[in-house]
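Sample pair:
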Amino acid sequence: MKQLYKIFSVFILIAAISSGVAIAQTDSTKLNQSVEVMKAYRPSISNAHKVNLMPVIEDTTRFSPEFKYAIDSQPVNSSFAASAIKPADVNKLAYKNPGLGYLKLGAGTSNSIYGEFFLNLPESKSATFGLHLRHLSSDGNIKLKEGTLVPAPFSQDNAAIYGSVNIGNTILSTDLSYDRDAMRYYGYPASIPAKIDSLSSLSSFKYGLKQAYDKGNFKVALRSNEKLQGNLTFNSGVRMGFFDSKTGQKENSGGLFGKFDYNFGPVHGILDLSYDHFSTDSIKLAAQQVPGTKSNDWIRIAPSVSLNGDNWFLRGGINFVASTDKDGGNSNKLYPDFEFNFRPVEGILTLYAGLKGDLKNNRYGDIALENYWADPRHNVLNTDYNYVVSGGLKGKISREISYNIGVNYSQVKDMYFYVFNSDWNASTNPAYVYNNQFDVKYDNAKITDFSAEFSYISGNDLSIVVGGHYYNYQLDSMPFASQKPNFDLSASIGVQIVDKLKGFADLKVVGSQKVMVYNHKNPSASAVSTDELFALDTYVGLNLGATYELSSNLRLFGRVDNVLNRTNEQWLGYASQGLRVIAGVSVSF
């Protein structure tokens, strides 16, 4: 599979160069505009996004795409994420056109190394081509909550190559990406046992074990040229993917997708189709004791129709999902799919509402990247979102100030929650050994999510975005939602400090979390099992950074992560890196 991706990447390069492909950098001046999207709020069932324990370098020059409608404020570690398209100014801190691309190099404390390369060939009417490479690594130590200093090296590598060619009234595009995340199991929720090295033979205990996740995706799509007028628009193609782990698990996937929109005059007919096949090996299966291979197929068919008025939009349809498993775990589901918005006051107020549902495929690779320290053999059940009702209001108070206030209510079956297990071992002190890899426990849930987001954009000099969520979980059997916060807040500020000097500050606050620990087994005691409760403190992360322009093509950048030097613990036992400083240089060409 990896060899196939290499062949495809060479083919793309040759085809791109031979056809004189090119793409222009987005004109940053186009960012200084106000955008109101006349589209309903569409709740989506997507992958969870946990605040990453590993530091992630953001581009301090804050390059923004031409139309990025919203900051994606999502529940932390929630299986359901819903984000509204926000009617806000998108004039983020603009930056001068960097030309073909840039090269950034930096280094910092904890033996951190950072590098990034971006290339876009010049504008062409017939084709586009781009390349992006990125590396971030650290070889530092992390202080756990109990005070133990442990080695916690990690690395993140990303590569992407993409291009497109105009063919008549259509555009043929190709995307190829590769990502690798490497780390080790370094965490422990209590004092580390004295004979911890002797426990490496336990399959449920991974202290010190190295882990690495390799992920690749390849997609070829043919879509209609939006610049040309026509009744039919479409975007369809094929996709392939692979996911490998250092502990031996592999996942391969491939499928077809297509979206078709036909203008019948007063109404639009829309059809979403997809077929995907997944095969994952060396994972736990319910029907057998030893690890095995899981193979399943997914079909999605979602027809709908939409109507537009002067100040309203309505779309209604159904979402059919069929999942088949070679072991007999078949499922056929039909869900509603509606969205509506109404704009009573032009540019000031938009009311939106939606109703939909979905069967979420909890893919092996998605779970592994969501929680690096989940049991490597995990086989998480699919999550059934019976229905998700959403609504709210959004608009602009003034040209500079935008708002979006909403609420979601969802009813979910087989929602998974991360939990810990423990075992009794007479050779250790203490005798109870916590498995430092996460297991999952399922429950049916009713989730209410209140959200609010406000932004203030003042030209190129100042941008402020503040948002947050409050969550309420009602579960059938579990006493609480393990590893789920009841709120999260975020704020981002970008400012032109003086001429040629720009700065930013990012703040993230995640509410305290409770974690269940199960299966305390002591054969010498009368009680064979005891459940235990751990509590995670509120997470507070503050990052600061700045960029100074030495010349039109040369800039210095620096950032300080975790300014408060807090021992933030977002997965039980796994504290985040302390205060870290990185500085470097960026060259545009």
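The longest strand covers residues 401-424.
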